[in-house]
Amino acid sequence: MSSVLYQKVVKSFGALNVLRSLDLAVPDHKFLALLGPSGCGKTTALRILAGLDMPSAGKVFIGERDVTRLQPRDRDIAMVFQSYALYPQMTVAENIGYPLWIRGTPDAGRKAKIGEVAAILEIGHLLDRRPRQLSGGQRQRVALARAIVRDPAAFLMDEPLSNLDARLRLTMRGEIKRLCQRLSATTIYVTHDQVEALTMADFVAVMHGGELQQMAPPIEIYDRPANRFVATFVGNPP
Ligand code: ADP
């Protein structure tokens, strides 16, 4: 079963065709990296799944559900952006618990769940701090904790590591990969970084000019690229 499905998704902004008919099926519980150069349509594809943009044509499914017309909050997804967008006036615990609070989860249940995800991300000792009192890596972990606190069906990340320095980026790659292996969510991770995609993902979908070039496990993308673009982009040119 695929738990995330794009069916002939087209997106145009005026005369600009950003997605040209995207068909993409991500198997249940798997980690897919959406890889391609800047401007190829990765973020647009993610935003359509999240409900932040409407497709010009086509459908998106999460699990068995056609979510194309649903509001973002009804889609059972969580999203992490480049800028973590933490609430500066709230503590770490309040930030993490916010998605539960707005859904009316009772205090006890919320507290237990905050403790659970904070432990997974090893930020249990930071719960009373405010975002400005945290390092970049700690903020990133809080954003990840807030995203997974509701056990979403799909976990979407858009270049989440691009604001971190090289050393921290390397550490967080491993952390995010391990985190996603623990979740029951299907993960879609947008990046223009070949190494990130090839080392973190179960499947890599390479895009170019609004079209999917190839979707396959990393080793296959590298060893058997579907075309010259993929070969050159992943650093194994013919
Ligand atoms: P990527 O994530 O691969 O860098 P994007 O999906 O962000 O690519 O953008 C793909 C193309 O769509 C770019 O040319 C971008 O300028 C254009 N685009 C994205 N969003 C909008 C918008 N809201 N209005 C007009 N053009 C847009």
The overall pLDDT, averaged over residues, is 94
The major pleated sheet works out as:
6 strands, mixed
Question: What structural category characterises the helix and strand content?
Answer: alpha/beta
Order of helices and strands: EEEHEEEHHHEHEHEEHH
The number of helical segments is 8
The 3D shape can be described as globular
GO molecular function, one term: ATP hydrolysis activity
Keywords: ATP-binding, Cell membrane, Membrane, Nucleotide-binding, Translocase, Transport
Domain ABC transporter: 4-234
Protein name: sn-glycerol-3-phosphate ABC transporter ATP-binding protein UgpC
Summed up:
It contains eight helices and ten strands. Helix content is 34%, strand content 27%. The chain has a six-stranded mixed β-sheet with strand order 6-7-8-3-9-10, with helices on both faces.
